[in-house]
Amino acid sequence: MSASLLRRGLELLEAPGRGEAPSGVQRGQDGTRPAAAARRRKRAPGPGRNKATVKGRVVKSAIEEYHKKKTVNHLRENLQYMLKGRIVANKAVTEQVLVQNRGRKSKDQPPKKVAKKKPEGTVFTEEDFRKFEREYFGRP
């Protein structure tokens, strides 16, 4: 630690009613070195306006900025709009739109529709099966 930091810490810890440090230990307020004086001159702004600000700039409220940039939820309005109209689009038009928006990759293609096979009816009737059973197995 530097001596100046140590001195400041001791000054903070010192009781308010106690005496000051001896004058030999403390330096003058203006400082004896030229570097300290230059630092003080650089730090202290003179009278006049702050050059870091822009002319005519208005300080904005952070709360107003937050409310301005906060996203608005339009879900309820959109649902009411969608549910209000009961117009159903033409099936051919919707299919055409879906085909246009479909990609060329295989993952974008819809699964092929497999035609369901109808169970084939038998040519033989129950009577024919009984008759065959009697002839083949010899049952009456």
UniProtKB/TrEMBL annotation:
Indicate yes or no for the key word Nucleus: yes
For this UniProt entry, what is the primary localization, expressed as one broad class?
Answer: nucleus
Entry keyword set: Nucleus
**Listed GO MF terms:** enzyme binding
InterPro entries in UniProt: AROS
The record's annotation in Pfam families points to:
AROS
Region of interest called Disordered, as start-end residue ranges on this chain: 1-56, 100-123
UniProt-annotated location(s): Nucleus, Nucleolus
Sorted alphabetically, the Gene Ontology cellular component annotations on this record are: nucleolus
Annotated family: Belongs to the AROS family.
Q: What is this protein called?
A: Active regulator of SIRT1
Q: Tell me the gene name.
A: Rps19bp1
